[in-house]
């Protein structure tokens, strides 16, 4: 896997993935684009959401939607690393089994999500979940 980051102007940078996709990042506290730390946070949410949806589908659950809401705490002084991240999963579906939802959300953070597992060596990673039931 490869990536390239090019300075645009000020503290704005263009990140380009090896697969040909781009994201603009703004080091000026996210003034005109996500900050690099916000991109890291979104990566954790995206990676863990893939695991949750895939896990629910593999367990034959009728999952219709998944939203990950991430909150953090950061150090006040440089380096302003994350000290705590909570991912709250809102899982929407038909007759979802709470036991399965609990298991796949836990497994994501503890076994499968590459981003969360990397961050978890330095950051307190927690999660919560909620089922939004949709009538058939």
UniProtKB/TrEMBL annotation:
Pfam families in the record: OsmC
InterPro entries the UniProt entry points to: KH_dom-like_a/b (IPR015946), OsmC/Ohr_fam (IPR003718), OsmC/Ohrsf (IPR036102)
UniProt signal peptide: none
Superkingdom as given in the UniProt entry: Bacteria
NCBIfam families given in the database record: PRK10738.1
Protein name: OsmC-like protein
Provenance organism: Vibrio aerogenes CECT 7868
